[in-house]
Amino acid sequence: MVGQDTVVILDGARRTPRPDILITNQEPGLFSRFSTTQLGGLAIAATLEHTPMDRSLIGHVVMGMAAHSHRDSIYGAQGMAWRGGLGQDVPALTVARICGSGAEALCVGADLLLSGLRHDAARPFLVVGGAESMQYPFCLYNYRGRKVGTAVQKYGPCDVQGLPPGTQLQDMLLMSLYDPSAKMSMANTAEELGRRYGITREQADAFGFRSHRRAKAARDAGHFEEEIEPVRVQTDGAAEPIEVRHDTHIMDDISLAKMSRLPAAFEAGGIITAGNASAVVDGGAAMVIGKESDAQKHDVRPLARVIGMGVAACDSAIMGWGPVPATRQALERAGIQGDAIDHVELNEAFAPQALACVRDFEELGIDPEKVNPYGSAIALGHPLGATGAILTLTCAYALRRHQQRYGLVTMCIGGGQGVALVLESI
Questions:
Q1: pLDDT digits over 259-304, tens only?
Q2: For residue 424, what are the β-bridge partners?
Q3: CA 2 to chain CA mean position, Å
Q4: How does strand 27-28 pair with strand 22-23?
Q5: How far is CA 364 from CA 4, 339, 353, 360, 392, in A?
Q6: Is 362 helix (H, G, I), strand (E, B) or coil?
């Protein structure tokens, strides 16, 4: 797939920090005021600022978003584009492949570039990425057309004082994590993988501990600074805005002893806890992509080539296994073997899910020690629509930093899918 028509990621890609949705599980998170389109706009603006090129060469925007969490979410990528500083003449497409949406945005962007059917030769570059505010709302269903108080609810705000006593609002965050096809939540599918692979609580905790320790080491070494654009926020009661510079979930004082005392979170006798599951955070990421020939023509610096892509489906009851068949596809299309991979970014939805994938990756020739050298979602968080884009730019910068050649980016997807990308550093 390497050649003049290879898709490249340009140098300058940026992401926001990933703060927890709650501070100490008691107060609104640092990004609680931002909608998904605002987070995407922040990422696009930062990327355009750090990518030295004429913005008039941007012909399309493709951004991932998993859920409609805010009142402006219906505008999706278009809202992110104008918030990011792009003109009204730049069209935008929102893509949704749940947890893989940010990676899917890159795949769709590559399709637009290479198919030629809608490629704008005068504006040959695209902005791709993803964003997600995990500040999902509490919702009231099936009240339109019903009497609330003294009037029938047709449009507009609902007066909760007029609702019958005992009426409950549904938590869209928890509801979204239940898969009706599998008849279980995402966490329970990971517990099922743990049973099938014989993964113990001790192994799951050790993997979570590894994620935090590696993420802390990477943060302290400054490895994330190249990709993170700090964000200034005004918090409740604060006189001055504060600057958010880092992902906030990394635990500096974590220990296996502390992790072992955490209760099972989803099943009696289960192995998944708050310490070995992905953190719930907000975030966004963006990058500019184009054909390698156009990068040369316009004298812009590429960061990495995208040489292989894969998307696959699997049994929804073990949805977390999806990265394995997707990785097989991506490696085959890239024309390389697993032992050629230098750096893997595997989203850690849950420790047993990630461990199951790592075991099968080893059969593909991928060294387990090369998986998540900077930690991943257990320590850093998983903002659904953004994660694929975040992992892609983390991998691309890491390859260049360590003078390595090939990287793999992959993640599982709720409902039973997986997506994978193979990058080649330039």
A1: 999 999 999 999 999 999 999 999 999 999 999 999 999 999 999 9
A2: 305, 406
A3: 26
A4: antiparallel
A5: 29, 8, 17, 7, 21
A6: helix
Give dist(CA 78, CA 206) in Å, integer: 42
- Burial (0-12, 13-18, 19+ Cβ within 10 Å), 97: buried
Give Cα 242 to chain centroid, integer Å. Answer: 24
Residues with catalytic function: 99, 412
* Integer angstrom CA distances of residue 303 from 111, 250, 360, 399: 19, 27, 29, 9
- The DSSP string of 279-340 is --B-EEEEEEEEEHHHHHHTT--EEEEEEEEEEEE--GGGGGGTHHHHHHHHHHHHT--GGG
Which string of DSSP letters, residue by residue, matches 162-215? Answer: GSPTT---EEHHHHHTEETTTTEEHHHHHHHHHHHHT--HHHHHHHHHHHHHHH
Alpha helices (runs of H) in 335-423, residue ranges in sequence order: 351-363, 377-380, 384-401
Q: What is the pTM of this model?
A: 0.96
pLDDT tens digits for 85-138? 999 999 999 999 999 999 999 999 999 999 888 888 899 999 999 999 999 999
Q: Which long-range contacts (CB under 8 A, 24 or more apart) does 166-169 make?
A: 167/140, 169/138, 169/139, 169/140
DSSP classification of residue 355: H
